[in-house]
Amino acid sequence: MEDLRIRTGPGLPRGLVIPAAELHEQFVRSSGPGGQSVNTTDSRVQLRLDLAACSALTDDQRRRALCALEPRLAGTELIVDAAEHRSQFRNRKAARERMAELLRQAMAPPVQRRPTKPTRGSQRRRLQAKKHRGRIKADRSRPGRDA
Predict the structure, then answer these.
(1) Contacts of 53 (CB under 8 A, 6+ apart)
(2) In whole angstroms, how far apart are CA 80 and each of 6, 55, 56, 72, 73?
(3) What is the overall mean pLDDT for the chain?
(4) b vs e for 6-27, b when ≥16 Cβ sit within 10 Å of the residue's Cβ?
(5) Is residue 70 classed as helix, strand or coil in its secondary structure?
(6) Contact criterion met (CB below 8 Å) for 49 and 86
(7) Are 23 and 1 in contact, with CB atoms under 8 Å apart?
(8) Under DSSP, is residue 99 helix (H, G, I), strand (E, B) or coil?
(9) How deeply is 77 buried, as exposed, middle or buried, from its count of CB atoms within 10 A (0-12, 13-18, 19+)?
(10) CATH code that applies to domain 4-107
C-alpha cells in the first residue's frame, strides 16, 4: 500500500502526505450484482484513518478536521467505504480518492462573510413590493359608505 497524497488547496498550501502505515484497509464482500464471483471475492473496501493519532497533521489541522468531519467519525476514526466497482483494485483507488477529498475539504479554513449594505436599488424595489402588496390587501376590504 502506498502513502495517501492530498493535493494543495485552501489550508494546505503544500499539500499533505499521510503515511501508508497509518491507513488501515479492510476488504469485505460487496452486495449487489456481480455475477458468479460476487459471493467469493472481497471487493468492497473500508479505509480507516485515526485522525487523533495521525502524525502527518498539525494540531490546527487535526482540530479543524475533527470539527468538520464530526458527523462522519466513529470516535476519532474516519471510515470511508467504496463498493461501486467490481474490482478490489478500483474500489481501493475510489476509497483513497474519497478520503483525500474529504480531508482536503475539512482542512479548508471557514470562509468569512463580509457584511455588506443592501444597494439603493434593492431597497427601493423592496419598498415598492411592500406598497404593492399592501394595495392588494386593501382592495380586499369592504368598500366604504362614500363609494
Answers:
(1) 22, 76
(2) 15, 19, 19, 9, 10
(3) 87
(4) beeeebeeeebebeeebbeeee
(5) helix
(6) no
(7) yes
(8) helix
(9) middle
(10) 3.30.160.20
Over residues 120-127, the mean pLDDT reads: 97
| Domain spans of the chain, in order of start | 4-107
**What span, in angstroms and rounded, lies between the C-alpha atoms of 117 and 5?**
42
Q: Whole-angstrom Cα distance, residue 23 to residue 98?
A: 14
* Strands in 9-92 per DSSP E: 16-18, 23-28, 44-50, 73-74, 77-82
Contacts of 15 (CB under 8 A, 6+ apart): 5, 6, 7, 8
Coil vs helix vs strand at 100: helix
Q: Which three cell numbers stand for residue 98?
A: 474519497
- Does pTM top 0.85 for this prediction? no
Helix-helix angle 88-107:59-68, to 10 degrees: 110
pLDDT digits (tens, 9 = 90+) for 49-81: 999 998 888 898 899 999 999 998 999 999 999
